[in-house]
Design brief:
The chain is of the alpha/beta class. It has two domains: about 210 residues, FAD/NAD(P)-binding domain (3-Layer(bba) Sandwich); about 170 residues, D-Amino Acid Oxidase, Chain A, domain 2. Helices cover about 30% and strands about 30% of the residues. The chain contains twelve helices and 17 strands. The strands form three sheets. Strands 1, 2, 7, 8, 9, 10, 16 and 17 form an eight-stranded mixed sheet that branches. It is globular. The protein starts with a helix and ends with a helix.
Length: about 400
């Protein structure tokens, strides 16, 4: 009886509930509010956490290889160039040189050929020219680099801008952990939070990053969205100046995601504590405008969201491999961090209506690349208002 008396029910009904206040949820909530919908944005933390908090903030607008991804990359960078003005908040957008390092034992010409079909193919530089572009590089560790102009934002600033603009547009926020999707038969009618409150909406969209799969699965909804455990080191502001964003040309994370989302691996994703593929380490670093750095990253496919990780061993591995390419960074003071990063199959995000259950959608899996978020959020909002959208239609086939 006491439990019943303590449970509170919020009877207000929204057009949309958006679960997750990171970059994806904040962007989508803002765009839904912009088209005149009544929107509730729900998340457990007032502070920015998870993949948004620890993102490098890179915008790979040059990387589109298909017609679909080229369109999204072009729309994305154009949107980012004007978002600070649109949101009335500095996202710290800039364009800088991306340096893709080619290991000393790799063939530079062969690596360049792998990028030849990008919308803007990176340029191959010799070791000497690479070190002129980025003086902190270790010339003995590389056979050359590929370089291209690359977009960059501060992920926390962008998210904060979206949240504030969302509220100005009439949106509402609730700080609480969503523990359950309210499902009645073949329809989701809202959410229940950890403080025993329920919120109702005609539509609910899950933007919960690495926790999206578990939340949907608990409601009996199967979606091909996955997650990695990403690990990196963050430093306080330092005097050292990194001129470029440094990443390996042979980015293993994309290969890992493809292996982990393969059909034969799918049955193992609902087993606790399973590791279907071994971890990888892509040694790279970015420095933000305040002088702080993020360097890493290790990506692990562990099917349990709260898996235990040996942080000391991970930090040592990151420092060793990043230090091989950028020796001055190896001993900088810094703190190891860990978060979940959502991804979909076929190198595409997971966006659209979930088949077989009415009133529930997903907007997640933007690991590759982040530049898609603003244009897809805008397209999604127009699509739910009845406008046909071939981009949304193509991406939703990934569900």
């Amino acid at each position: 009886m006491e439990d019943v008396e303590n449970e509170q029910t919020i009877m207000k009904t929204y057009d949309w509930i958006v679960v997750g206040r990171g970059i994806t949820g904040a962007a989508l909530a803002y765009e839904l509010a912009q088209v005149g919908l009544r929107v509730l944005l729900v998340d457990s933390d007032t502070a920015i956490q998870g993949a948004t908090r620890y993102s490098y903030g890179g915008l790979a607008y040059w990387s589109g290889k298909s017609d679909l991804t080229r369109v999204m990359c072009a729309e994305g960078i154009e949107r980012h160039r004007h978002l600070s003005a649109a949101l009335d908040h500095d996202t710290q957008f800039r364009e800088l040189d991306l340096v893709l390092t080619i290991s000393a034992n790799q063939d530079p010409e062969k690596m360049a050929a792998a990028y030849a079909d990008c919308a803007i193919p990176p340029k191959l530089l010799s070791v000497e020219d690479a070190c002129e572009l980025e003086p902190l590089l270790n010339p003995n560790a590389i056979a050359g680099v590929l370089t291209v102009r690359h977009g960059h934002i501060h992920p926390e600033h962008l998210t904060q801008g979206y949240r504030q603009a969302f509220c100005r547009a009439g949106g509402e926020q609730q700080i609480a952990q969503v523990v359950e999707l309210l499902r009645q038969g073949d329809r989701v009618q809202g959410v229940k939070t950890s403080d025993n409150q329920t919120y109702h909406a005609a539509n609910t969209v899950v933007c919960a990053g690495g926790f999206s799969r578990a939340l949907l699965n608990a409601a009996g909804i199967q979606v091909r969205v996955y997650f990695t455990h990403a690990e990196m080191i963050e430093t306080p502001p330092v005097d050292l100046k990194l001129r470029t964003l440094v990443m390996p040309a042979n980015t293993q994370r994309f290969q890992l995601e493809a292996q982990a989302s393969a059909a034969e691996v799918e049955p193992f994703w609902d087993q606790r504590g399973y590791e279907p593929v071994p971890p990888i380490l892509d040694a790279g670093a970015i420095q933000f405008l305040d002088g702080s750095l993020r360097m890493g990253q290790i990506s692990r496919v562990l099917t349990q969201p709260f898996a235990a990780i040996n942080s000391a061993a991970s930090e040592s591995a990151i420092r060793t491999q990043v230090g091989n390419v950028l020796p001055a960074l190896a001993s900088l003071p810094g703190t190891w961090h860990h978060c979940l990063v959502a991804f979909g199959g076929n190198n595409l995000p997971v966006v659209g209506a979930i088949e077989g259950v009415e009133g529930v959608y997903i907007f997640s899996g933007f690991t590759n690349p982040l530049v898609y978020v603003p244009p897809l959020a805008q397209r999604f909002a127009q699509w739910v208002m009845g406008k046909e959208d071939q981009i949304i239609a193509q991406i939703s086939q990934n569900l």
